[in-house]
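Render Putative circularly permuted ATP-grasp superfamily protein in 3D.
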Amino acid sequence: MRNDYDEMYGRDGAVRPHYGAFDDWLQSTPALQIEHKRREAEIAFHRVGITFSVYGEDAGNERLIPFDLVPRIVPAAEWRVLETGLRQRVHALNLFLGDVYGEQRILREGRVPRDLVLNNSAYRNEMRGLAVPGGVYSHISGIDLVRADDGEYYVLEDNLRVPSGVSYMLENRRMMARLIPEMFARLPIAPVERYPDALLEILREAAPAGIEQPVVAVLTPGSANSAYYEHAFLAQQMGVELVEGADLFVRDDTVYARTTRGPQRVHVIYRRINDDYLDPNVFRPESLLGVPGLFNAYRAGRVTLANAPGSGVGDDKSVYPYVPEMIRFYLSEEPILHNVPTYQLRRPDDLKYTLEHLAELVVKEVHGAGGYGMLVGPASSKAEIEEFRARILATPDNYIAQPTLALSTCPTFVESGLAPRHIDLRPYILCGRRIHVMPGGLTRVALREGSLVVNSSQGGGTKDTWVLEGGA
């Protein structure tokens, strides 16, 4: 009998119905042929340069993100619930951002603590009173979902600033269609290939008023950035320019790109640079990555930045516990997707409970990301727990804590063969005149046995995610 919820196998070990066709393929394909396909995928990913830079490593600073041949499969009925819940959540978060930079009704009514938002390092006073096109702050969102041992999905965190990973979702699908095309002929797998077109569409929709043929560019920090491959990939797929800060300049509150044909106006910038580095005249003066005058051009309505500066206050882990209340406040609806129960260490009772149960909990920095700055109690030594205890006591407001969920598992190829490994799911939501939820998303897998940390920067891998269309 299995304790964790397994995506492919029931508690009794029987294959779940939506995995039946894939299991047939798995059982009928010789092990040597499967190994050959796995090797083929690895060579192909290396050939096209699908690597991830890991800061702090010495040799070369880049490595391949491991790709697994066993997909995560989501039945149609299950996906419909997730899709509706994701659309609801992103809608409410955008309304929240518009409110906290506008009338601040939710703060005045005490539904979200005022100091938690206004004193948050991700809150940008420069955005106060600034009307953003269409009221959209987070055009591209990545919402991390986990499935617990009760079979229910929970939102682990929201990513509203510069969510990454979508290029791996697209490349994983290309690879699976190449390696096992017969499965795509046999199963009604929802396509994800339209993502670049949908992204370009919502970016063009966000252009300043009156622009009929908006010019879009992707702004990257440069080739040293860990997600540079993705920046270049998306620019190429959309057919737009990939630019660095030095390629742009501002004149009369208008942004131009330097080209061999002379200056070309840019109307929409899909920025993959953090707020702090966007404009040295407004944010960090030492930044060499941004564009002097960019924020003034944005404030004047002469260019659109996606995602909007200041969006990060909506995905800060200290604000996360209040998203269900945002849904009730702005939409008069009950949340479809639930949060993981969360202890806010700024509260004395929650702090006391957390300190007494550190060995059982996951503790996270409210501004942390990428699996850094966190304690996984059950997987930590006594010395690590005590060291983290001291950090919490020094700045309790800087942390939240959550139960250690038994994340669902999915069979994964490892050195010893096929074995269950813990996974999560990051669907991508595009917000313009309508909210588009891409079917599936990026499934990340923790390759170390028993590990719950799926982040690529922490040794995790990825899987293709198949959403089955129809009534299944």
